[in-house]
Design a protein that fits this description.
Elements lengths: L26 H10 L13 H8 L2
């Protein structure tokens, strides 16, 4: 978005939904990251805050 705002929710079309396959070797690190940085809700964000999302929101 050109406004730089973060928009959450379902994608407009099914083309925006996908499955990500991870190698077993990364699972422990991902669990650690989620416990330390992730939002607690089942549908919580994995990358939270300016340190992670700032560059993603810049136009």
């Amino acid at each position: 978005m050109k406004t730089g705002e973060l928009v959450t929710g379902r994608p407009k079309t099914d083309a925006g939904v996908g499955v990500v396959t991870l190698q077993e070797v990364i699972i422990g690190d991902l669990r650690w990251h989620l416990q330390r940085f992730g939002e607690e809700a089942p549908d919580g964000l994995v990358l939270v805050g300016e340190q992670f999302c700032g560059d993603l929101r810049d136009p």
